[in-house]
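[Protein data]
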Amino acid sequence: QEPHCGRMRVFIILGTLASAMGLAPKLSRRNFFAGSVAAPAFVASVATPKAFAAASDEKLRNLPDEKLIELVRKDVVDRQFLTNGKLTRALYDESATFTDEIDTYTLDKWQEGTAKLFVGPPESHVDLVGDIVATPSAVEFKFDELLAFNFGPVHPKVKLTGRVVLERGSDGLFTHYQEYWDQPVGEVLKSARL
């Protein structure tokens, strides 16, 4: 069985369920990421990671593997970037893409969407599983996470494991992000709890 990718699919399904139960407004993936969701109860004062990104305008090209691994580890463990979008932007090419099984997102849209989609730490939490591996073409790591979706006053949680592959360009910057889940989407949805 192929690994599954795309936390956005789970978002759409949970959003549909929440809307049907009257817990959140109806919305599509497109208008969520376009920033047109106007319901304050749903988006309830979520801080955007742009302020964090502005602090690192200079790109960190051609870093030694050890330094790159250290910075990715800080993003995963300390910053919990999978739950809030707060990654070290200096490691990414500005044209980097973030792909799931539904669509491809730009760096800005992925950061903004992730910040709005989840309630960050401590309600959501990511653990690094094993070592981060760096090669000239990619950096990979495995994760175990509990994600709390931001549906206003209701925060359904799902637990999942998987891996992330960060493809590197010729200058060492990340050009593509791909997330693979170990569980099928249906199994992840069955694990949702309040």
